[in-house]
């Protein structure tokens, strides 16, 4: 199956927005298009799977996740998704949209950075009803290619607000400033990953001491800031290899900002338990 949305105009469901919604009876691409796709996708867009009835499985960044009734799985751009070979849940919605849609919405949604490392969200029965209604409306709007983009975006805003509120629950009220600092930390890491920023430089950027940064990152991730940076770099290495970017160890090390390929190799083995060569071999 190929990407749900694309720069190719005919794959989007609205003439003016890069967005697509799929349910059991709506929005599926033609067999001619899906046959050209791959089972492993390096996502260029935001992806949501909401299960209304039944059960579904999805592999994200080489981890198997089960999605059950009233649960929503969300993926961010650049994550690696392996499509299931088994059937989907009996009733579900899938939604895909890119940064252009997000940039036209009235606010930011911190859950999209996944600061609490919860890629799956469970809704209460009442919230699940509201989310289902919003998906229904979006599906109805996208049934016509010339639906008003502003109305689509208004309902997308409502959906993301529901998801954001459920994602954080009471956590945001309990420790708003600390959580904001952790979100800032994650944003800085994503934007400067291959520059290998020092912990001191990140702390200065966020206006906190290195001790405070350690406590915040440890609280929300279970890792020290240095461990977090290393894990994120090694995940990026695995993503690039898993998606078929089979460059040499030296090239991969340089792409990720390592000046010493041997050090990168040792770090990869320590972090994953496998050498780069063994990881490549498992993929073949």
TrEMBL record:
SUPFAM superfamilies: Homeodomain-like (SSF46689)
Coiled-coil portions: none
Pfam families assigned to the protein according to its UniProt record, in alphabetical order: HTH_18
Domain HTH araC/xylS-type: 183-282
Keywords of the record: DNA-binding, Transcription, Transcription regulation
InterPro entries per UniProt: Homeodomain-like_sf (IPR009057), HTH_AraC (IPR018060)
Any GO molecular function: sequence-specific DNA binding
DNA-binding is among the record's keywords: yes
This protein's name: AraC family transcriptional regulator
């Amino acid at each position: 199956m190929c990407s749900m949305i694309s720069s190719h105009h005919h794959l989007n469901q609205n003439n003016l927005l890069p967005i697509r919604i799929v349910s059991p009876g709506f929005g599926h691409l033609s067999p001619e298009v899906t046959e050209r796709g791959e089972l492993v996708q390096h996502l260029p867009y935001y992806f949501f799977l909401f299960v209304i009835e039944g059960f579904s499985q999805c592999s994200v960044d080489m981890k198997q996740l089960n999605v059950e009734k009233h649960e929503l799985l969300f993926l961010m751009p650049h994550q690696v998704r392996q499509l299931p070979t088994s059937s989907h849940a009996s009733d579900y919605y899938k939604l895909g949209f890119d940064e252009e849609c997000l940039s036209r919405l009235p606010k930011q949604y911190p859950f999209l950075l996944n600061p609490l490392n919860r890629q799956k969200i469970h809704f209460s029965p009442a919230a699940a009803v509201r989310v289902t209604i919003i998906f229904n409306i979006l599906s109805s709007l996208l049934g016509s290619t010339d639906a008003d983009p502003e109305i689509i975006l208004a309902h997308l805003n409502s959906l993301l607000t529901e998801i954001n509120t459920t994602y954080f629950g009471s956590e945001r009220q309990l420790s708003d400033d600390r959580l904001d600092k952790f979100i800032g930390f994650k944003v800085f890491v994503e934007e400067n990953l291959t520059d290998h920023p020092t912990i001191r430089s990140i702390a200065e950027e966020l206006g906190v001491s290195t001790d405070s940064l350690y406590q915040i990152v440890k609280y929300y991730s279970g890792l020290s800031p240095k461990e977090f940076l290393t894990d994120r770099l090694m995940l990026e290495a695995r993503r690039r290899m898993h998606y078929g970017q089979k460059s040499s160890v030296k090239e991969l090390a340089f792409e990720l900002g390592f000046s010493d390929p041997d050090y990168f190799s040792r770090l990869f083995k320590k972090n994953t338990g496998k050498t780069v060569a063994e990881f490549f071999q498992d993929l073949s």
